[in-house]
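Suppose a colleague, Dr. K., hands you the sequence of a protein chain of 132 amino acids and asks what its three-dimensional shape might be. Before reaching for any lab equipment, you can write down a predicted structure in token form. Begin with the sequence itself:
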Amino acid sequence: MEQVAARLGAEMTEQITQICLRLYKTCSEYALSKGLIIADAKFEFGQNREGNLILADEIFTPDSSRYWDADRYQPGISPDSYDKQFLRDWLLDHKVNGEFQFDKVPKDILRQTQKLYHECLDRIVDRDAVLA
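The predicted structure, expressed as tokens, is then:
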């Protein structure tokens, strides 16, 4: 945090910190009400031409956060997750000469990753409320 504050200034660093904490608190409480734990989340910020802080990327998607089933969570054990970790694990397990094989991911791995994303969406989003 000291390095961030040295680059951005204490005020901007504090503003970003407070936004991140509020976002995580609100969204993690909502996810937990749906039986999911948000294990981690990534936020990317930038500044517009006027110097105003802006959110620069998606948040709380399976690409930017890790979701665990609250009922299956046990401390010290990495549970299955509803996010890109499944695909990441496959890539890590199938490196060739230290290189990821992005172009060789089997279709069934891609389909399973898609299925996990949809399961996460189905658990979080009340589709009836969205479509109403």
